[in-house]
TrEMBL record:
It is found in: Membrane. The keyword Chaperone applies. Keywords: Chaperone, Coiled coil, Membrane. GO terms for cellular component: membrane. The keyword Membrane applies. Gene3D superfamilies: DnaJ domain (1.10.287.110). Pfam families: DnaJ (PF00226). Residues 361-374 have a biased composition (Low complexity). Residues 361-416 are annotated as: Disordered. Residues 294-342 form a coiled coil. This is J domain-containing protein.
Length: 416
């Protein structure tokens, strides 16, 4: 929601004082800073300096400096603590892809397909034509829509004229693409020389089956969702994808429009093909309930963002504690398993396993418990001793002794 400022920036190789880079003083107004940025950005834009690598670095430095000084909070942090405060807080990243060759463009497109958000700058030709006032402006009356197709790195400009009553009620300008084209919605301010300077931009985001971008001038602070904020942190840490999600809410720089004609544009941000879109301008007077709900839900989201910041600290501590006890659980389990294994080994040493080694012809045998030594029958407690004569056992055995030889002896006598 809302709209972003003109441009973000990637961090330059060497960082200099942003006031020095933009050639402005520390007490310069926002408008003076913006004017200085526009001039330097056009001067060093890669589109106009394709054969000058130093210009590209200057452009990056200018955009980075403006990113700091155009944001009141970042400017305050820098004035108090320098770049260290910004490093701790994190900076938006932007990649200039408007002048890339085919291979690099395909590489960037692949990243977009993989879900890695990449910001792109707007073509210098579009910015310069707007600043010179040489662009064609199509009328877009309030309550109407217009559908068209814009070539990549080109823009269609629209003039939205609003009355005092409509300005007081609030204005909404939205663009959607049923083809899910990638585009930017731009807002230009009237420049002193009669041209138009880029003031706000909103990158299209996928919502359901369409891509869309909107600017809401409703007399209260409206926010936009910048998916590139903390994108690297979110890619490295799955938990950050949740906790940092609401950090992408960025306040819109402009919350209301005055009566008159205002210039908007749809910029084709697709890497390979034109962007199809529908743009519409609405007066919020007929959407009072919706406006009220928006104000309420954004207030709730901001409150939830503050809650998540506190909860993340608790969660991280709890997660660290959980990992600690989980590691201990694994260690303790291994220790217990090892002790039980040693216990089983000790228990098994009390069990004597024996096997027959040899049996003599006289009926005596030697038994082994697994060692090289042997024992006699008398040494084995499981071998019965012979019964004494006169005992019941001996009589019983005598009666049964050699019963199978009786007939044999009789037959021997007969034979003799």
């Amino acid at each position: 929601m809302g709209s972003s400022k003109m441009e973000g920036s990637s961090i330059p190789a060497l960082r200099r004082d942003p006031y020095e880079v933009l050639c402005v003083s520390k007490d310069s107004s926002d408008q003076e800073i913006k004017t200085a940025y526009r001039k330097l950005a056009l001067k060093y834009h890669p589109d106009k300096n394709a054969s000058n690598p130093e210009a590209s670095e200057h452009f990056k430095e200018v955009a980075y400096s403006y990113n700091i000084l155009s944001d009141p909070e970042k400017r305050r942090q820098y004035d108090m603590s320098g770049f260290e405060a910004l490093d701790a807080d994190g900076m938006d990243m932007e990649v200039d892809l408007s002048n890339l060759g085919t291979v690099n463009t395909m590489f960037a497109a692949l990243f977009s397909k993989l879900g890695v958000p990449i910001k792109t700058t707007i073509s210098a030709n579009v910015l310069e034509e707007a600043l010179n006032g040489t662009v064609t402006i199509r009328p877009l009356p309030i309550g109407t829509s217009c559908s068209a197709k814009v070539e990549k790195q080109n823009a269609h400009f629209f003039g939205v004229t609003i009355s005092e009553e409509q300005a007081a009620a609030g204005i909404v300008v939205r663009a959607t693409s049923a083809a899910q084209s990638k585009f930017k919605l731009l807002y230009f301010e009237q420049d002193a020389n009669g041209g138009y300077g880029l003031a706000l931009q909103e990158d299209s985001e996928k919502t359901g089956k369409v891509t869309s971008a909107g600017m809401y001038f409703l007399h209260f602070q409206v926010y936009r969702m910048d998916s590139t904020v903390n994108a690297l942190a979110m890619a490295k840490d799955p938990d950050a994808a949740f906790f940092k999600k609401l950090e992408g809410l960025q306040p819109c720089e402009v919350s209301e429009l005055k009566a008159g004609t205002h210039i908007f544009a749809v910029y084709g941000d697709n890497f390979f093909k034109p962007a199809t879109y529908t743009i519409e301008a609405l007066c919020a007077k007929t959407y009072e309930d919706t406006t009220s709900k928006l104000k309420d839900i954004e207030s709730q989201i901001l409150g939830k963002r503050n809650e998540l910041r506190q909860f993340e600290t608790e969660y991280r501590k709890a997660l660290a504690r959980f990992q600690e006890v989980t590691n201990r659980y694994t260690q303790e389990k291994q220790a217990v398993d090892e002790l039980m294994k040693q216990r089983d080994t000790i228990h098994s040493s009390f069990t004597v396993a024996r096997s027959v080694v040899s049996v003599t012809s006289g009926g005596s045998g030697h038994f082994s418990n697994g060692s090289s030594s042997s024992k006699t029958l008398g040494d084995d407690p499981r071998v019965e001793c012979p019964a004494e004569e006169g005992t019941p056992e001996s009589k019983d055995k005598s009666s049964k002794k050699k019963w199978f030889n009786l007939n044999l002896k009789g037959s021997d006598k007969k034979a003799t």
